[in-house]
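Pilot study result, target chain (161 residues):
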Amino acid sequence: MKAASVKEIRDELKARSPKELLEYCLRLSRFKKENKELLTYLLFEMSDEEAYIKSVKEEIDELFNNVNRKSYYYIKKSVRKILSVTKKYIRYSQKKTTEVELLIYFCIKLKSFTPSIKHNIALRNIYLRQIDFLKSKFAGLHEDLRLDYERDMDEIINYTA
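Predicted structure:
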């Protein structure tokens, strides 16, 4: 089966009743965990972005605390998983400020991680790629917002990996 385009889906959804749309949403939530997480964000957390950011930061903290530190191989796998989880939550929000704040937080946690990422090229490269990505996102922010995040950006940029 070939999936329909977004435009075709949008047009078809406009023709459906609210009751049918509700049933479609509930049916979608049964199939994938990500669909359920997105619906949870849209229904319950979108109105309070600060609380959402705080809860994601707490999850990032928990994930960093549970990293297997026996070898850099396991650390690298865990850090990549934490980054993918962080980016998933960023996709739910689709707000530039949330994206910048969560990525800055990820970089700060990675920078302060023990054992140090200085001793592993792959971890350093993950860190440096996120800094480059943040710089591009940071340039697109409004000037007032840039000033708010400038101190945190300086802290992670000036880190010599």
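One observation from the pilot: Residues 48-157 form one domain. A full batch analysis is planned for the follow-on phase.
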